[in-house]
Amino acid sequence: MDKVTFIKILEEGSHKLEYRDVLVKACLENTSWISILLNNMRSIHDENSNFSARTFELVCKKNLAVIIPHLDTFFELLPIVILDGVTRPCSKICELLMIEYFSKCNDQFLNSITTIHQEKIIEAGFDWMITNKPIAIQAYTMQTLYLLGTKYDWIHKELALLIEKDIPTGSTGYKNRGRKVLKAIETNTRLKL
Predict the structure, then answer these.
(1) How far is CA 128 from CA 106, 113, 133, in A?
(2) What is the C-alpha to C-alpha distance for residues 68 and 112, in angstroms, rounded to an integer?
(3) Does the model's pTM come out above 0.85?
(4) What is the per-residue pLDDT across 27-50, written as a single tens digit (0 to 9) for each?
(5) 193 lies in a domain?
(6) CA 20 to 30 Å from 15, out of 31, 40, 58, 148?
(7) How many Å from the N-terminal Cα to the C-terminal Cα in the chain?
């Protein structure tokens, strides 16, 4: 696939799920095209940005290392994304990055993810937790903030307060994930999901 076709499918194919695999494969073969996805995600009010964000998430799930040259750009997006269809993939990618950083201690990510990047995740994560985002976003964010809390002590306390406040009115999924995170915080043990 050439770059023009890639862009055309991104622009026109947002409702055709069969294009996702083709776009993911093309991005993995031409990793510089990730910048196209990230640029589309900047169109914060455009529903087509959802398709680019989901495609980017799937690319990251296949090979998370491809994000490394684009970390600064990705983290710049976190505070500006509005649509849940963009925020959800961003929250999942943050979770994947923090798993590599904290749980797997992957040198490639330990050397690439800076304190500034972590601060951007923390800021966006707490924003997503307090703005009543859908459960998937909050579930990924709970895990991400929990992992960051192993480095920044204050996070666990704040995260626990938020979860405890929202559990009574939260969905079943929120309650299940929230209880697991709270238990891990209270017992100072590794979060098991």
Answers:
(1) 26, 21, 6
(2) 7
(3) yes
(4) 999 999 999 999 999 988 887 899
(5) no
(6) 31
(7) 38
